[in-house]
Design brief:
Blueprint lengths: L1 E3 L2 H13 L4 E6 L5 H11 L4 E6 L19 H10 L4 E3 L3 H4 L20 H4 L3 H16 L3 E5 L3 H13 L5 E5 L19 H6 L2 H14 L5 H14 L3 E8 L12 E10 L2 E10 L2
Parallel strand pairs: 1-4, 2-3, 2-5, 3-4, 5-6
Antiparallel strand pairs: 7-8, 8-9
Helix pairs in contact: 6-7, 9-10
The protein binds pantoate.
The site of pantoate has 10 residues, from strand 2 and helix 6.
Length: 282
């Protein structure tokens, strides 16, 4: 696997593949790669001849007081993991490559209003930052296909929407969340958890599972269902931010629906965890 740090080197390599008629898949990441990311690379290999991964901790998507400064930066380990996963090219730019004229007065992609809810409500500006950097990465790599984890469910829907709205000729593939044996969704942020918090953390997945079981069992009192699990999380020492039931396209659920996604975010100590679960009810 080759690692490049400049846009010029990235474009040169991708152009060579294009000249040879080879298809390209993109796996954008912020690094500190775990099994979930490697699964994206593995799946990407089934979709395209060449796989490009990017590692860039994007300052634009972090709010004030969030963890941009302490976000784990582990490039050497990431390179080794990507090599093992048979990634073809790693693009690991610094901020000056991506935002050469700074970030103060940058052209941005603005997320649609619907994304001001849930994550958007708790992380103002986050989705504009994600949409902007992903569109920059799409412009630089010009992939045929790009893969994103379903753990960031709203992000995945946002990217799908952006690609449709801006007529980007890129297929977006969502890849199932990888979990620890106790249900905790894999996340680079899990390593912030101390031992006692790590023990508690699977309660977030358990709360989602309880809501999903309620839906499968025929409950349609959405608010009460979510409130119960919000309170259960609070009782276990989390600071829950939301527990919500939506349609898979994130529109509000209605009593006659049979397909749902349950989403939650909660802070445990200084770690903000998010997760989601799909539920189908007959
Ligand atoms: O999901 C992530 O790691 C990031 O939000 C992404 C898509 C790489 C954009 O910075």
């Amino acid at each position: 696997m080759q690692t490049v740090h400049t846009i010029a080197a990235l474009r040169e390599q991708v152009a060579r593949w294009r000249e040879a008629g080879e298809s390209v898949a993109l796996v954008p990441t912020m690094g500190n790669l775990h099994r979930g990311h490697l699964r994206l690379v593995e799946q990407a290999r089934g979709h395209a001849r060449r796989v490009v991964a990017t590692v860039f901790v994007n300052p634009l998507q972090f709010g004030e007081g969030e963890d941009f400064g302490r976000y784990p930066r582990t490039l050497a380990e990431d390179q080794a993991r990507l090599e093992t996963a048979q990634c073809d090219l790693l693009f690991a730019p610094d901020e000056a490559q991506i935002y050469p004229d700074g970030r103060d007065d940058l052209s941005r992609v603005v997320a649609p209003r619907a994304f001001a809810e849930l994550e958007g409500a708790h992380r103002p500006g986050h989705f504009d930052g994600v949409a902007t950097v992903v569109s920059i990465l799409f412009n630089l790599v010009q992939p045929d296909i790009a893969l994103f984890g379903e753990k960031d469910y709203q992000q995945l829907q946002l990217i799908r929407r952006m690609v449709a709205d801006l007529h980007m000729p890129i297929s977006i593939v969502g890849v199932a969340t990888e979990r620890e044996d106790d249900g905790l969704a894999l996340s680079s942020r899990n390593q912030y958890l101390g031992p006692e918090q790590r023990r508690k953390a699977p309660a977030l997945h358990a709360a989602l599972s309880a809501v999903a079981a309620g839906l499968r069992g025929g409950r349609r009192d959405f608010e009460a269902l979510c409130r119960e699990q919000f309170e259960a999380l609070a009782g276990q020492g989390f600071e829950p931010q939301y527990v919500a039931i939506r349609r898979p396209d994130l529109r509000p659920s209605e009593a006659g629906d049979t397909e749902f996604v349950v989403l939650a975010a909660a802070v445990l100590g200084t770690t903000r965890l998010i997760d989601n679960l799909r539920a189908e009810a007959v």
